[in-house]
Amino acid sequence: METYGYNNPDPQNRNSNYRSEKKLATGIFAIILGALGIHKFYLGYTSEGITLLLSTLIILPLLTIITCGIGSAFYPVVFIVPLIEGIIYLTMSDEQFDRTYVQGRKPWF
Length: 109
Prior knowledge:
Blueprint (H helix, E strand, L loop, with lengths): L22 H11 L4 H6 L2 H21 L8 H17 L2 H10 L6
């Protein structure tokens, strides 16, 4: 049976040494490369990853040019949201991370 990134596919078998295969890497990707959406691609959330990537590389720069710099006020959002996500990922338990983001496929926060 495929496990899709989690070690314990049987919910009845509670293991106190449960380790998520994706939690640490996803949290680090979110904090370091979050504005590029790398953590979303790593979790398999392609559309959310493309949204972050396009907003960082194309939409916000164009908005900044068109509005003569006023659009640059939105730049911090692209960096703060993934930072918060990375902190959330790293502070939750491994089982909760897998239930929420690997099995449950919750795309944001």
